Amino acid sequence: MVKAALGRVAHAFTPHSHDSADKTDAALESSSRGMRVLAISFAVLMVTAAVQAVIVVASGSVALLGDTLHNFADALTAVPLAIAFSIGRRAATRRFTYGYGRAEDLAGIVIVLLIAVSAGLAGYEAIKRLLDPQDMQAVWWVAGAGVVGFLGNEWVARYRIKVGREIGSAALVADGLHARTDGFTSLAVLLGAGGAGLGFPIADPIVGLLITGAICFVLRDAAREIYHRLMDAVDPALVDAAERIIGTVDGVQRVGSVRLRWIGHALHAEVEILVDHDMSVVDAHAVAVEAEHRLIHDLPRLRAATVHTDPHGPDGADHHATLSTHRTT
């Protein structure tokens, strides 16, 4: 009993290890895996787009041109993400006390801009060809290029989504979903080729406009995702889960505020718990440490948590009276 009590006291005054070397190693490994995914998917999409580009020159298909431009843009999104992953591995400093994980959000802004540019170029070419229809050459090659685009994008989508979910990178998952959408727009090229083969050359620019519309939908979703990250939005289900986890800790009489934010592909938490007002400082700290321990282990992608303890009771006591004029929430 004495040994257990001494161990509890020692643990209470020892910095909690879950936010030190083991968490740093996990973060570095996650970034390394993200970099590998980006390098491989970049190569696959560039080869896919290059094959399509050759057929665009031979056929003059604007639908295929729009798809090719989108695939090039999708491949190029790997560049800002790779830079962000690299920067995010840097250690925190006295200026950037939370580290450099938010570089992923800046990369997201660049990705949104690249998608917007690809939509603009595809729409321009489709409208120009709609006003001046031309016969499509090498129809079967165009159809084949659409299939190649679908297969390349779907492979990249599955790879990015799988690893993105495993390492907790919302940016990588979103980029994977973007690639999947690109795959379906590549299949739409088949419609343009089929229309041209049946003697309706106007089908090609019409499909080009449809692809432009699909790119705009992707642009909207990507912009919304980045906006949420920049505004520190999280899934409310994560807050509910955090409250449930904390509520199971012995000594926690009530759960106060719970704040979560994404920094890169890791969650950080700031929570308040209420404990018995007669509890000693050592015991109250031990409860806080256990709450932090449970959160880090049970809440997916949580890398660090700051737990603040408040006394619960006696009735009518205001333990924050001095701060009442400074608190807005």
TrEMBL record:
<keyword id="KW-0812">Transmembrane</keyword>
<dbReference type="Pfam" id="PF01545">
    <property type="entry name" value="Cation_efflux"/>
</dbReference>
<feature type="transmembrane region" description="Helical">
    <location>
        <begin position="37"/>
        <end position="62"/>
    </location>
</feature>
<dbReference type="InterPro" id="IPR002524">
    <property type="entry name" value="Cation_efflux"/>
</dbReference>
<keyword id="KW-1003">Cell membrane</keyword>
<keyword id="KW-0813">Transport</keyword>
<dbReference type="InterPro" id="IPR050291">
    <property type="entry name" value="CDF_Transporter"/>
</dbReference>
<feature type="domain" description="Cation efflux protein cytoplasmic">
    <location>
        <begin position="236"/>
        <end position="312"/>
    </location>
</feature>
<dbReference type="GO" id="GO:0006882">
    <property type="term" value="P:intracellular zinc ion homeostasis"/>
</dbReference>
<keyword id="KW-0406">Ion transport</keyword>
<feature type="domain" description="Cation efflux protein transmembrane">
    <location>
        <begin position="39"/>
        <end position="231"/>
    </location>
</feature>
<dbReference type="GO" id="GO:0015341">
    <property type="term" value="F:zinc efflux antiporter activity"/>
</dbReference>
<dbReference type="InterPro" id="IPR058533">
    <property type="entry name" value="Cation_efflux_TM"/>
</dbReference>
<keyword id="KW-1133">Transmembrane helix</keyword>
<feature type="transmembrane region" description="Helical">
    <location>
        <begin position="139"/>
        <end position="157"/>
    </location>
</feature>
<feature type="region of interest" description="Disordered">
    <location>
        <begin position="306"/>
        <end position="329"/>
    </location>
</feature>
<dbReference type="InterPro" id="IPR036837">
    <property type="entry name" value="Cation_efflux_CTD_sf"/>
</dbReference>
<feature type="transmembrane region" description="Helical">
    <location>
        <begin position="106"/>
        <end position="127"/>
    </location>
</feature>
<feature type="transmembrane region" description="Helical">
    <location>
        <begin position="68"/>
        <end position="85"/>
    </location>
</feature>
<dbReference type="InterPro" id="IPR027469">
    <property type="entry name" value="Cation_efflux_TMD_sf"/>
</dbReference>
<comment type="similarity">
    <text>Belongs to the cation diffusion facilitator (CDF) transporter (TC 2.A.4) family.</text>
</comment>
<dbReference type="GO" id="GO:0005886">
    <property type="term" value="C:plasma membrane"/>
</dbReference>
<dbReference type="GO" id="GO:0015093">
    <property type="term" value="F:ferrous iron transmembrane transporter activity"/>
</dbReference>
<protein>
    <submittedName>
        <fullName>Cation diffusion facilitator family transporter</fullName>
    </submittedName>
</protein>
<keyword id="KW-0472">Membrane</keyword>
<dbReference type="GO" id="GO:0015086">
    <property type="term" value="F:cadmium ion transmembrane transporter activity"/>
</dbReference>
<dbReference type="InterPro" id="IPR027470">
    <property type="entry name" value="Cation_efflux_CTD"/>
</dbReference>
<feature type="compositionally biased region" description="Basic and acidic residues">
    <location>
        <begin position="309"/>
        <end position="321"/>
    </location>
</feature>
<dbReference type="Pfam" id="PF16916">
    <property type="entry name" value="ZT_dimer"/>
</dbReference>
